[in-house]
Structure formats: structure tokens, C-alpha cells
């Protein structure tokens, strides 16, 4: 009786042991380093209280812009009817513009030494934009919902811009006026134009 051949490992299958320092530590836990609502000291010549107040107002607008972005995307997807294609494109364009505002507001908060609202669940706790139904509404109701969101944001943005200018925070004032207010007003104009009942072929 012959014994089976001894098992050998081919040279190509031989594994090199993983050396210390080459394996990334994939699972790590740390402590929160800065609490939400606090500001770090930065050399930008703005008083601590002004920066705390500015971050609070900016974070509210940031949360609203995040919700408005989500609302635009939801309606971009759920639209239907004869105007589907043009509104599908328009709402996506507006969503993209709101996303730019989201980033600008968040980075303004950071530049004031604060902590930007990042998690959408946190943003949902702060926003004043009402949650829409999870299902589908009629298209005019979708547009009306977007217009109401725009108006509440614009009212808050104008108040924030005025108060922040009075505190000497011209940078935040400029961002709110040039981005949040001007873009919001233009988007509201485009939306409202679609709610006007106009004849298509005869006067
Ligand atoms: Fe899309």
C-alpha cells in the first residue's frame, strides 16, 4: 500500500505575514471634539457672541435649504402629467442650485468657528419647512408647497441678513442676500409662473 503524496504549498500561494503598520485600523471610536452650538476662536475680527448668533441663524437657513433640496428632488421624481418633462428638468435645476447654497452656508458656519448641521436627521429637527406627505400630491399642490417653503425661508433670511449686518457680520449678510435671497426669489418666480392658467392656442 502506497501512502498519499505529501501536501505542499506552491510558491505562488505562500502568504507573506501582515506586518505591523500596514493594516489600517478600520473600526475606531472617538469623542465629540466640539459641541453643536459652540464656536472656536478664529482671527476674523468678529466678537464671540456675534459668531454664535451668526452660526445659529446660518444653521437654520442651512437646515431649511437641505429640506428644500429634498423637496425639489422628491417632486422632480414624483411629477407626472403633460408638463412632466419641463418641470422635471426645472425642479432638478433648482435642486442643484439649492445644493450649492447648502454647501456655501455650511462652510460659512465653519468659517465662523461653528459646527454646520450635517446630518439630515439633525436638519429635520431644526428646519421650519413642513414635512410633506410621503405619498404623491397633485402637481399644483407640489408647486404650491415649494412656494410656501421659499416664502418662509425668504422671510427668515431677510431678518437674519439685517440682524447679522447690524452685528458687523457683513460676510454672512452678503452670502444670505446674494445666495439665499436672490436665488430663492428667482426660483419662486419660475415656480409661480407655472401656476398661472393660460390658454395654449387661443386667447
Ligand atoms: Fe433626476
From TrEMBL:
InterPro entries: DPS_DNA-bd (IPR002177), DPS_DNA-bd_CS (IPR023188), Ferritin-like (IPR012347), Ferritin-like_SF (IPR009078), Ferritin_DPS_dom (IPR008331). One of its GO terms (molecular function) is ferric iron binding. Residues 1-22 are annotated as: Disordered. It comes from the Bacteria. CDD domains: DPS. Residues 1-10 have a biased composition (Low complexity). Residues 57-199 form the Ferritin/DPS domain. SUPFAM superfamilies: Ferritin-like (SSF47240). Belongs to the Dps family. This is DNA starvation/stationary phase protection protein.
Amino acid at each position: 500500500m502506497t501512502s498519499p503524496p505529501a501536501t505542499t504549498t506552491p510558491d505562488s500561494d505562500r502568504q507573506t505575514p501582515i506586518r505591523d503598520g500596514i493594516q489600517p485600523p478600520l473600526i475606531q471610536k472617538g469623542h465629540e471634539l466640539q459641541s453643536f452650538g459652540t464656536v472656536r476662536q478664529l482671527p476674523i475680527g468678529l466678537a464671540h457672541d456675534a459668531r454664535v448668533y451668526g452660526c445659529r441663524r446660518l444653521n437654520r437657513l442651512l437646515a431649511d435649504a437641505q429640506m428644500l433640496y429634498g423637496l425639489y428632488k422628491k417632486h422632480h421624481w414624483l411629477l407626472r402629467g403633460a408638463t412632466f418633462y419641463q418641470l422635471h428638468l426645472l425642479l432638478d435645476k433648482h435642486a442643484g442650485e439649492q445644493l450649492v447654497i447648502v454647501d456655501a452656508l455650511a462652510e460659512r458656519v465653519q468659517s465662523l468657528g461653528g459646527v454646520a448641521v450635517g446630518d439630515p436627521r439633525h436638519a429635520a429637527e431644526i428646519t421650519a419647512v413642513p414635512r410633506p406627505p410621503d405619498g404623491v400630491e397633485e402637481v399644483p399642490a407640489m408647486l404650491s408647497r415649494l412656494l410656501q417653503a421659499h416664502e418662509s425661508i425668504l422671510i427668515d433670511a431677510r431678518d437674519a441678513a439685517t440682524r447679522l449686518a447690524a452685528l458687523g457680520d457683513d460676510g454672512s449678510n452678503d452670502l444670505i442676500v446674494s445666495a439665499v435671497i436672490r436665488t430663492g426669489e428667482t426660483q419662486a418666480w419660475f415656480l409661480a409662473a407655472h401656476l398661472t392658467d393660460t390658454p395654449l392656442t387661443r386667447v
